[in-house]
Design goal:
The chain is α+β, with helices and mostly antiparallel strands and 177 residues long. It has a single domain, classed as 3-Layer(aba) Sandwich (Aminopeptidase), CATH 3.40.630.30. The chain contains 5 helices and 8 strands, in the order ββαααβββαβαββ. It has an 8-stranded mixed beta sheet, with helices on both faces. Helix 1 packs across helix 3. The longest helix has 16 residues. The radius of gyration is 16 Å and the shape is globular. The two termini are 22 Å apart.
């Protein structure tokens, strides 16, 4: 578990089901995320799958944590990381927040702690985030946590039935503040 002033970053639990359904079932939340609006059964499957996604030891490994309010232990969002390349010491990261909690700085706090944790725990040189160009809020979050835009790609991703354009954001270990 990772603690911040207001949050606990922790593995997902089956008891988080209602909080996860609250945002994973909403079209506006999953619009830029590579899963559909989830049914309760799909959320249960995702929670069960997350039980094995707990570290970044080898290329292709995927790591998922939820972030919960400290005072209630209720999940309000989640974070992920994927070990992309051993040779290049690179991982990618992503995030999602229940929009009911937006505008309070929770996502910024969680992503900063996630980045710090990944760099402190693993020997990565670089973290990246691929962001749909329509997702201005996520791009702004990447900037707030110190990531810089490195690339702009036009119609590089056939996503949910349409060609979409993405930005690549990155942060080097040496750029941590």
């Amino acid at each position: 578990m990772i603690h911040t002033d207001r949050l606990i970053l922790r593995p997902l639990e089956m008891s988080d089901l209602d909080e996860l359904i609250a945002y994973q079932s909403k079209a506006q939340v999953v619009k830029y995320i590579p899963w559909p609006e989830r049914t309760p059964e799909q959320v249960i499957e995702a929670i069960e799958k997350s039980f094995s996604l707990t570290g970044l030891a080898n290329e292709g490994d995927y790591y998922v944590l939820g972030f919960a309010l400290k005072d209630t232990n209720k999940i309000i969002g989640q974070l992920n990381a994927c070990f992309e390349s051993a040779a290049n010491k690179t991982a990618s990261i992503g995030w999602v927040l229940n929009p009911q909690f937006s505008g309070e700085g929770y996502a910024t706090e969680a992503v900063r702690a996630w980045i710090d944790h990944i760099f402190a725990t693993y020997d990565f040189h670089r973290l990246t985030a691929k962001i749909d160009q329509r997702n201005i809020g996520s791009a702004d979050l990447a900037k707030r946590v110190g990531m810089r835009k490195e690339g702009e790609f036009r119609e590089d991703d056939f996503f949910k039935g349409e060609w979409t354009s993405t930005w690549q954001y990155a942060l080097l270990r040496s750029e941590l503040s």
